[in-house]
Amino acid sequence: MGILFNPLLIAVAVGVLGMAIASRPGHRVVGYGVLALAAVLLLFQVGYGIGKDMAHRDNAAQASASMGAA
């Protein structure tokens, strides 16, 4: 899948789409809505990455603690 399914790339693409829509006078509200969606997607991606990293660190700490107890 690689770069074609990178959520960060999708969030940036949606943001650019929102800016393009917002530049048209009759579609400003829709454009700002799409920009808000891009912000939500970006925050989701960042939060997912942080949570995944924390889970890996917790699992590694738990594994090393259980190896020391054995």
Overall description:
This protein has 70 residues and is an all-alpha fold. It has one domain. The chain has 2 helices and no strands.
**Which band does the percent of strand residues land in?**
under 5%
Structural class: mainly alpha
* Global shape: rod-shaped
Total number of strands? 0
Radius of gyration: 19 Å
What's the story with the biggest beta sheet?
A: none
Amino- and carboxy-terminal Cα gap: 41 Å
**Average pLDDT figure:** 85
> What ranges have pLDDT less than 50 throughout 5 or more consecutive residues?
none
Number of domains: 1
> What share of the residues lie within helices?
over 70%
Count of individual helical segments: 2
**What is the helix/strand order?**
HH
Write the topology of this structure:
Blueprint: H1 7-22, H2 28-69
Question: Which terms would index this structure?
Answer:
mainly alpha; 2 helices; 70 residues
Quick structural summary:
The protein has 70 residues and is mainly alpha-helical. The protein has helices at residues 7-22, 28-69.
